[in-house]
Specification:
The protein folds into two domains: about 60 residues, Ribosomal protein L9, N-terminal domain (Ribosomal Protein L9, domain 1); about 80 residues, Ribosomal protein L9, C-terminal domain (Ribosomal Protein L9, domain 2), CATH 3.10.430. The protein contains three helices and seven strands, in the order E-E-H-E-H-E-H-E-E-E. Strands 4-7-6-5 form a four-stranded mixed β-sheet. The protein has a three-stranded antiparallel β-sheet with strand order 2-1-3. The protein is an alpha+beta fold and about 150 residues long. About 10% of the residues are buried. InterPro entries: Ribosomal_bL9 (IPR000244), Ribosomal_bL9/RNase_H1_N (IPR009027), Ribosomal_bL9_bac/chp (IPR020594), Ribosomal_bL9_C (IPR020069), Ribosomal_bL9_C_sf (IPR036791), Ribosomal_bL9_N (IPR020070), Ribosomal_bL9_N_sf (IPR036935). This is Large ribosomal subunit protein bL9c. One of its GO terms (biological process) is translation. Keywords: Chloroplast, Plastid, Ribonucleoprotein, Ribosomal protein, RNA-binding, rRNA-binding.
Length: about 150
């Protein structure tokens, strides 16, 4: 009997690998646990070809997403600063907060792209001034925008 057999994972397993990965395991482990629980399937030529094709399609999608993210980053870099007017009190403190929603609306007015408010990382804004806002487009692509808080003319 063979020492190891070749299987392809159908589910991501912490100690074995990611979904679609081809691994060698003991025959008993494959036939008694992985295959009956639909965690893996036997690796035939057709299944290996199919898994490689799916991995290639997934890589192409990731590349397209990354290209769109870099284009968005370029558009955001063109914005020098965003100005928001707020009512102020004593010592230049503003009334209320500046929310991520307000910032996304201002960015939408400039570039026409709606961002998710979860992408915006802003410091706590209590006073009039200039603040740096970080926008997380992807995990490794971040854009910085200046936010200027101005008092409204009463």
């Amino acid at each position: 009997m063979k020492k190891n057999i070749h299987v392809i994972l159908k589910k991501t397993m912490p100690k074995l690998g990611q979904e679609g990965k081809a691994i060698n395991v003991a025959p008993g482990y494959a036939f008694n646990y992985l295959i009956p629980n639909k965690i893996a399937s036997l690796a035939t030529k057709g299944i290996l070809k199919h898994a490689n094709m799916l991995a290639e399609i997934q890589n192409q999608k990731k590349e397209i997403i990354k290209i769109k993210a870099t284009e968005l980053q370029k558009q955001l870099r063109e914005i020098t600063k965003i100005s928001i007017k707020k009512k102020t009190g004593d010592k230049q403190y503003i009334f209320g907060n500046i929310s991520s929603k307000e910032i996304t609306e201002k960015i939408f007015n400039y570039i026409g792209i709606k961002l998710d408010k979860k992408q915006i990382e802003a410091p706590e804004i209590k006073k009039i001034g200039i603040y740096i806002i970080k926008i997380h487009i992807l995990d490794d692509i971040i854009a910085n925008i200046k936010l200027q808080v101005l008092p409204t003319n009463i």
